[in-house]
Specification:
Mean pLDDT of chain A: 85
Oligomer: heterodimer
Shape of chain B: globular
CATH architecture of the largest domain in chain B: 2-Layer Sandwich
Number of strands of chain B: 11
Distance between the termini of chain A: 40 Å
Shape of chain A: globular
Order of helices and strands of chain B: EEHEHEHEEEHHHHEHHHEEEH
Low-confidence stretches of chain B: 312-316
Mean pLDDT of chain B: 87
Strand content of chain B: 15-25%
Low-confidence stretches of chain A: none
Distance between the termini of chain B: 34 Å
Number of helices of chain A: 11
CATH class of the largest domain in chain A: Alpha Beta
Strand order of the largest sheet of chain A: 6-5-7-8
Structural class of chain B: alpha+beta
CATH topology of the largest domain in chain A: Rossmann fold
Order of helices and strands of chain A: HEEHHEEHHEHHEHHEHEH
Radius of gyration of chain B: 21 Å
Helix content of chain B: 25-40%
Largest sheet of chain B: 4 strands, mixed
Number of strands of chain A: 8
């Protein structure tokens, strides 16, 4: 389903007379981990759907042999547009922004009296109101504050140490790490995943196991091609009712 | 207002009790507005009632809420829990199978602490039993009794109802007795429910089984066999959601101290409510918007991801 949406966006753009399309092949962002197989194949998939006149820019981002190799991927992508000095300047700027963002995320969330929920799930679902049935807006209407699971790897990698084996999918490891980081400060956990997604299914099970007996309510949501969010909203409303009743004792 | 049935209950507004004065179970049959009117007409014919508060629940709760002028619109999980708790405060587990949802609600000390619902598809729910009974040429009311007669329930693939159906057809063509197929299907649905929803959750007694499917004796038998515990099926199991909504509505109107927003039987029965669904073309999201109109006047709309209301906004 997310791939369909992706291809839909690509075709929409292609119809607008687009000449160059950036679809990176993200193989691995952290040593020893992979991204989801569907992301790996994205450039090849897109190629089938756009006319040959559209130029595809598909830099390979691969950290399997370490961060150096990953950085080389970024740089060689830049070199297609500019000379090395300019690329390096841009790269340094990007690193500064990334670092300050990571510091900000690590600081945690403002504590308040309102109910807070940790939202786990891939960015392409969490941030796409179309695919996720307007999840964040609905939670806002229900008076719930959302804590995002965006945490730097420096926090989430050590947080996953309790597991006998580190998950090799980066999204899963980040979600589990965020769960460890936030579980004592939130009132509940929601995970959202596309129906039939392998990586997210693993995540659901691992989160479930971790929270068993932890007295922290957990809701697993799956989305597919339903254009009516009624089913999703029923679950969200019931979950928020549960949290409220629990908090008020 | 559910996918398969629309249920009406009248609760005694006086006192703290939850005595059911009148109830009606009607089939929605894809015509929620018509069935809403039918139910209200039957209610008005059954006695001269004074309505102090109205609650709506189920997948059609928003629509019903707008048409009736409900004091409370609540999701069916909370409603079912409220109803079960009013019957017995010590309930710890609720199994509920309705038309397109199956739910498992876990309570501790009278508070909902966890729940699970079927995921994106409606496999293993009441509407599937309905369909299969129809295909076998038996009424859904006889289905449970038929399943109980079985001596050798056959194994039916229960993961997906489309798989289940082809498996059932194969068994049927091998000459397996219909009672054994019916029982096999019940067993498969119980397996499906427990593996999909229970997932290691602790199902402690007292266990309630409610929703339309609780009427099915076959389902009751296989559930209590699988759980190795007796189940309690409440007297008004088929309308528990409605009872819960009514109880919560009673709370919402302060036990009758606040004025209800109910529009009145006359107004509802003598007005024409229409709905219209269209695809909005304002942005590439192409949201499916449904609008409700009463006698030509706009009431409400749903489905716009941007939160826009009504057609008037459309042009603007």
């Amino acid at each position: 389903m997310p791939l369909k949406a992706f291809v839909g966006h690509v075709r929409f753009l292609a119809r607008q007379g687009l000449g160059l399309l950036w679809v990176p092949q993200v193989i691995s962002l952290v040593r020893g981990e992979y991204t989801c197989p569907n992301l790996l194949g994205l450039p090849d998939l897109v190629r089938q759907y756009v006319s040959p006149s559209v130029r595809l820019l598909t830099p390979v981002l691969d950290a399997r042999r370490g961060k150096r190799q990953l950085d080389r991927g970024y740089l060689s992508w830049g070199l297609q547009f500019a000379a090395l000095p300019r690329v390096l300047r841009a790269w340094q700027k990007a690193c500064v922004v990334q670092r300050s963002w990571e510091e900000e995320q690590g600081r945690g969330h403002p504590a308040g009296s309102a109910l807070t929920i940790l939202l786990l799930g891939p960015g392409y679902l969490v941030d796409d109101a179309y695919l996720n049935g307007n999840l964040q807006r609905k939670l806002q209407e229900l008076g719930v504050a959302v804590v995002r699971a965006d945490l730097p790897d420096a926090v989430t990698v050590p947080a996953c140490r309790y597991l006998t084996k580190r998950p090799y999918w980066t999204t899963t490891r980040r979600a589990l790490g965020a769960l460890e980081h936030f579980r004592r400060t939130v009132d509940g956990v929601i995970s959202i995943a596309p129906f039939g997604c392998g990586a997210e299914a693993m995540q659901g099970v691992l989160v479930n196991q971790r929270l068993r007996g932890a007295n922290l309510p957990y809701l697993e949501l799956y989305v597919d091609e339903h254009s009516s969010p009624v089913g999703l909203h029923t679950r969200l409303e019931a979950f928020c009712d549960l949290l409220e009743r629990k908090k008020s004792g | 207002m559910g996918s398969v049935s629309t249920n009406f209950v009248l609760l005694d507004g006086q006192g703290g009790g939850s005595a059911v004065l009148w109830k009606k179970y009607l089939r929605t049959q894809g015509a929620p507005l018509a069935v809403l009117k039918t139910g209200l007409r039957l209610m008005s014919e059954s006695g001269n009632w004074q309505i102090c508060g109205v609650g709506a629940t189920g997948s059609g709760r928003e629509l019903a809420g707008v048409v009736l002028g409900a004091d409370l619109v609540k999701n069916e999980i909370t409603a079912h829990a409220a109803a079960a708790l009013s019957v017995d405060g010590s309930v710890s587990t609720i199994l509920e199978i309705g038309g397109q949802d199956s739910k498992l609600i876990i309570l501790r000390d009278g508070v909902v602490v966890d729940f699970a619902m079927n995921t994106v598809c409606a496999a293993g729910t009441g509407s599937f039993l309905d369909q299969q009974a129809h295909r076998l040429g038996i009424s859904i009311e006889e289905f449970g009794a038929l399943a109980l007669r079985s001596k050798n329930p056959v194994r039916i693939a229960g993961r997906c109802t489309v798989f289940a159906e082809s498996d059932m057809v194969h068994k049927q063509q091998m000459g397996v007795d219909i009672a054994d197929i019916a029982a096999g299907l019940c067993a498969a649905m119980v397996r499906n429910f427990l593996s999909g929803l229970a997932k290691g959750r602790e199902l402690l007694p007292l266990i309630f089984f409610q929703g339309g499917v609780a009427a099915n004796a076959g389902m009751r038998r296989f559930f209590s066999e699988a759980l190795q515990q007796p189940l309690y099926v409440p007297e008004h199991h088929e309308v528990m959601g409605a009872i819960g909504a009514a109880l919560l509505a009673k709370e919402a109107v302060g036990g009758g101290t606040r004025r209800t927003r109910f529009l009145g039987l006359d107004k509802i029965l003598h007005s024409q409510v229409t709905t219209q669904v269209f695809e909005c073309g304002r942005c590439p999201n192409c949201c499916e918007i449904s609008e409700v109109w009463r006698d030509g006047a706009f009431l409400a709309s749903w489905g716009a991801r941007c939160g826009r209301q009504g057609r008037a906004d459309q042009s603007g």
